[in-house]
Amino acid sequence: MERRSRLFDSVVVGGQPLPNRIVLPPLTRSRATDHGVPTPLMEEYYRQRSGAGLVIIEGTVITPQATAYPRVPGLYSAEQVAAWRPVVAAAKRDGAAVYAQLWHVGRQSHSSVQPDGLPPKAPSPIPITGFQYRSANGRIPYETPRELTTAEIADIVQAYGTAARNAVRAGFDGVELHAANGYLVDQFLNDGSNHRTDQYGGPLENRTRFLLEVIAEMARHLPAGRIGVRLSPSSDWMDAHDSDKRALYSAVVRRLNGLGLAYLHLVEPEIAGSTTVDRPADSIPTASLASLFDGAVIVTGGHDQESGERLLADGIADLVGFGRLFIANPDLPRRFRTRAPLEPLRPAGIYGGGPEGYTDYPSLAISGV
Q1: CATH number for position 339
Q2: Active site residues
Q3: Which of the four, 23, 213, 217, 259, has the lowest number of CB atoms within 10 Å?
Q4: pTM for this one?
């Protein structure tokens, strides 16, 4: 007799009952307009993937200064809010909860895309090394960022709150704070990118201050129980180095645990940004961090149905994210339920373009299975 799939057990997240434990994690696809406005093509993409229990919409920038790449969506203008509404409604079609991932890239941006034409701002004037920026004219070195003043930090905190308020207005059920992958929040957390000597730098208490201030500001506009946080504790993607990642992220998770959040979203050690890597020698086992959090835990990173089931059975995760599989299989939950074959991911169209590699992957109904 075939074992019952735990992936299809219902679960409550943020006070909302979800039909299953399958998550569409945030995946940058670059199909917004040049002004960060969601498009009808995005509406179709999320409608196709609405069978997930939780849909976390792709990284969505909180200000024009927060972006690094063309055609990523935003949540800072009335036009964007209005354009998000049909997209969110489409993603909710089959009963999913839908969260917006709020994003600021910090030093991962470049002067060529900054509104003032100057280098981006970050916690400290420390450039990214070992990686290159993907500009319109090819890969180029990252610039030395400008150091944020305390007044500018306060402005960014407020911008996160405004984006959270706009997410509610657009119909989102909640928001996820992108604190992973070496982006701005992660830059404050890691001592390799944060050399500040004020209240935002130095000891762990100071380096976590920005993260906690952002969450508190967002919680002015929606309940803390509708806010999730994504971390990539073992990754050094985009030069996200810390002298003691285990101590850092254990402290971060313990502090998040007392806030009554919707969930903690952990990226597996074998994932760096959008790439698969060997597990780092100093990696932190996902299970050890998950055990420090009393609420719902999402785990994402290279999983298939079998490994996802093990995460649930072992009590490590409450929900599992499937990124690449969901790109190539818009009806992934149905394929999991019926044990149908999975479509392979095609490199063309992952970032930018039109329907090809975005909305043209077949569903079971179309393929005749």
Answers
A1: 3.20.20.70
A2: 183
A3: 259
A4: 0.96
